[in-house]
## 1
Amino acid sequence: MGLRRYLANKTVWYLGALLVAVVLNFLLPRVIPGNPVDVIVSRMGQGGQSSEAQARVYEQFMREFGLDQPLWSQFVTYVTSAFQGNLGASFSFYPTPVAELIAQSLPYTLVLQLPAIILGWIIGNVLGAVAAYKGGSWDKSVFTTSLLFSSMPYYCLSIILLYTLAVVLGWFPPGGAYSLGMSPEWSWEFFSDALQFWWLPFISLLVINIGGQAVGMRSMAIYELGSDYVNYSRSLGIGDRKMTTYIFNNAMLPQITGLALSIGTMVGGALITELVFSYPGMGSLLFNAIASNDYPVVQAVTLIITVAVLVANYAVEILYGFIDPRIRASKSGEK
Amino acid sequence: MTNIQSSAVAAETEGPLLPPEPSTPKAKAKPAWRSLNFGPRLWVSAGLIVIIALLAFVGPLFYPFAPDEKVGSLYDGPSAEHILGTENFGYDVLAVLMASTRNSLINGLLAGTLAVVIGVFIGILAGYIGGWLEELLMGMTNIVLAIPSIVILILISISLQSTDIPFLKGIVGLALVIGITSWPWTARAVRAQASSVATREHIDVAKLSGARTGGILIFDVLPYLASYVVMAWVLQLASAILAESTLSMLGLGPSGTNSLGMQLHWALAFQAVATGAWWAFLPPTIVLTLISFALLYLQSSLDEVFNPRLRRGKKKHLAQAAARRAEAAKQLAEQNQRAEVTA
């Protein structure tokens, strides 16, 4: 299979996956008995509003969200407006556009996750490679600690760090993203203030990432250390230093894939950490939207998580097509 | 059935069957499982799991308080009577913890088993039968795999929240949702293994002896995948328990039931961390961490048992093996010499 066919094949698959994801995203909240508007209106009704006002709100919502039209035409509307970046209006902050809420939250998630993923990847890989290479008690301690941190649910570490470092020791502020009285703006003052709130969630994500990467790198490196080419090169008398670079290069390819994939899961990967630290990112946005039955926001968040993951996976597959000659040579793509 | 038929055919082609196991084993013979080389890691993780299971299933029998019995007020500190104090509703934390752990384990078992069953079914069919069925099933798997499962979980759980069917609202409904969204990894791994097993000779023998496809899948393919299935099951267990707690903390948990995630959800909602009520949030955090750690540790040690390439031989064992090989080679050489002499 030539490179072109490989690329075309992958593109078709990912477009298919995207289509399924969008359909599910659209359909699942709508198969609820009664539509979201019913739920909202019944909630308003509990608040004690008159029925005439309710009816007007209902009409308004129905028209706004196109819920009185057949399902397929709702879907077409949904997809076309989503492509134009119009994700609808929030139910609970009506008429604030969902896109605006996302634009407020996404930066917080990104500044937390991106450095934690990249730095964690670098440190984790070095630790894992050293552990595999040195073996013995060094390996045992690094492996066990890394496994503990990587298998620990990431929010459990967040909770423990928040309690010990912020509540008991008082080294960090206990949650939030900036001091009361501050407002997000492009000023030095705001950034230095926000930095203090950023450290703790960042550290908690960093430690988890280091653990996960170290475990992966260690087993890759052990696998490589036992392979034929290593034994052969050793028997030829090639020095340790040279060998490590060979092993490292070979063990790196899957790790780079891992980096790309974890950048893809960035948006959806630390939802609960944000909740624990009351950090106003996508996790908190999603939590509040779920609590207030704000379907447009929930749908938008899940759509963004999905698209990010699909794009990262797709990018990796395409990159592999160029890097790895075996893919071009093989008859069929990965199943 | 299938086995007997296929082994009978095998006997015809390869000579007489091996004699059955000697009825009186040698005095020093180890039972078969002892040769599996279980490391200390496996015992540590299995021990942890047993302790947690005891806490969850046996603990409530001996503990005087029920998880739905109001015994105090908001966040009473630990006392002699209530070892871990009370939580936000005034229930005894330890009683709630035991009920939560039990529900979380049950959820994990249900969801993990469901995911493995679906995954093995799809993977084995695709890998063994191949052709258009494989294309179809794996296409489906790849699409489900590409979509992050947390998204589907969130969307389905939101729908479940407003159903009227009581059984879907609790832990069972959640387990079903987690199970039917987390099978693709298993399906993919099983397919790869099954398609390699499908090309082995004993499958041809089974086919020639007239075994039906179902029988071949169960008796001739599945046993070769057993180690993968066990490891996949352990992983699915862990991820199902974590998925439940993630969903619960997002506010999509089983309403009106205890689970580790719900316990953390309430603790966060009632500001247990900020007010320093450690007894309300640390116990579920620690139990969740231990469960997850023990299961993943178990998986990694099972991996080393089943997959010797990951195992770093102990130097002592390597030396012993080398000595044995040298001894065998010497004997062989002597035999050959003797043979040459007599010839």
## 2
Amino acid sequence: MDEQHIMMIDFDQITVGQALPTLTLPAINRTTLALFAGASGDHNPVHIDIDFARKAGMPDVFAHGMLSMAWLGRLITNWVPQTQLREMNCRFAGITHLGHIITCSGRVIENFEQDGNKRVRVEIQSTNQYGEVKILGDAVIGC
Amino acid sequence: MIDKAHIGKTFPAHAVTVEAGRLRFFAKAIGETNPIYTDEAAAQAAGYAALPVPPTFLFSLEMERENALDWLDEVGMVLAKILHGEQSFVYHQPACAGDVLLFDTHISDIYDKKNGALEFVSKQTCVTNQHGQHIADLKTVLVQRNG
């Protein structure tokens, strides 16, 4: 699907239970991590230098949590304009390794009001191809 | 053990100019395909003054200070033992390329679980722009594994 032609939706069209269009990413490789290290400014060698990762007790380099969270950001901004995103909260539940194919998904779970403004809460998660949850979180969308 | 006396420790506030080229590089690194994040004209057509800062990039800008990881040593944390536990963003105003953002960060909590096998350091950051507008609040929880 050509993501540039996804129609973003208005706040009034959002209903509880609604699922967001999922986002599946290519398998993570070393280039993914090197590019993200440079672009994000997170130069922690545990993500790019296998020697450092092994000394740290890891079998290999592994993905930045913020890479997967950035993909969850894309999940949201593919669905509603970013100006409607009020809040995003994530808990990193497991390490994302090389070769993992991450799918981002979300579902509207609640309608509420905050300071007199209408809001909806969306639960979001990232999962690998084995069904292991890597990030659990939520996002708040406003009108 | 990480000394709880570091709760309240403040980091020197730092200002960062949001660069369009850096935003394009970030968009490439995360596979972004929506042109509003890479094409100035598309961003303006969507109502932004310039390329918008995507939702999680404020975390990167917060790290854009000299010797960004030195504080770990100062509070007794070891880089090789640290994982990112939690991350939150609360958004107040959009930020765009060309904005000068000011980051004001402090350690908001230090605690441990499993008899100290896991130690947690929570940081809070307030982001404002060159007009004094409140842009966002960030919360980061780092976990140190002492096993």
